[in-house]
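Hey, resending since the last one bounced:
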Amino acid sequence: MSHLTYAEAVVVGLIQGVTELFPVSSLGHNVLLPAIVGGSWATDLNVAAPESPYLAFVVGLHVATAIGIMIYFWRDWVRIIRGFYTSVRHFRVQTVDEKLCWFLILATIPVGLVGLIFEHEFRVLFAKPIRAAIFLVVNGLILYAGERFRTRRSKQADADQAARRAELATVPAAAFAEAGSPASASASAAGTARRPAAAHASGQRAIRRQEEIQAVESDDRLSRIGWVEAVIIGSAQILALLAGISRDGVTMVAGMFRGLSRQDAARFAFLLATPVILAAGVLKAPDLTGSLSKGIHGQILVGSICAGVGAYLSVRFLVRYFQTRTLTPFAIYCVVFGLASIVYLQLK
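The structure tokens again:
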């Protein structure tokens, strides 16, 4: 039986954590990379093999990725889980958090059912390097179409939220700091030598407070999309079972086609990613303690840490990126890398 090396664990862990959130398909990259590198990598990292230790490794990466995302959104998940509790307790779906919670649940069901039934078929039939390269090109075209043919409603939502961000930017940083920290008044009385550091900390609190306000306002908008829209957007994740198609990318495109701003579409996609990735990891959890993981527990731990850190840093970057920027650079990357991979694999 082949075994993973620590070098493979670090590289693949980082790729998994970063590309899971970036709209470029983590599975596609994890299928293509071993084939391009060749040698022991192609043997050790063959996701289509039925009894490969790589399957147990992937389970650890998925769980770590979900944890990394949850750490960034922990405040939001506290509200969402509280909304689930109050909804069940009072048998109602009224508040923003209650609605968003059930939207996420319903939007996850389609991909959950398809993945549960057909996961093996998708992995064995489509997780091949040449097919992953082809689907990566398709993913790029989907991302480009999502930007090129955006609805008027989605563009207007972007304009409205840009105006709102500009409005928040005019609010003094001290106001956000005071709102976010009762101790800010005493901090302002610190000595002159400590003022630069205090000012920096105050500025960081202000930025975080702005992000929290924007998150709450985004959830309010998402809670008004409707049950059917939530299921339609969530169903787009089924395409991501094909290696090369990005879960977050197709979900964002579906959201924009249904009238969401780019920022809200990205947030909904990131929130949806957590239960799907975590469920995929938990479902295959027995692989972590079974024969497939024998001799690679250290590699699983190292790779998982890399994946978790990569996921956290990625979502932190992308939440801000999609406030003002587009999917187009990712579309170009997917098409170029996909075509180059096809040529290379055919000539190899």
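Residues 83 and 223 are 12 Å apart (CA to CA).

Sorry for the duplicate.
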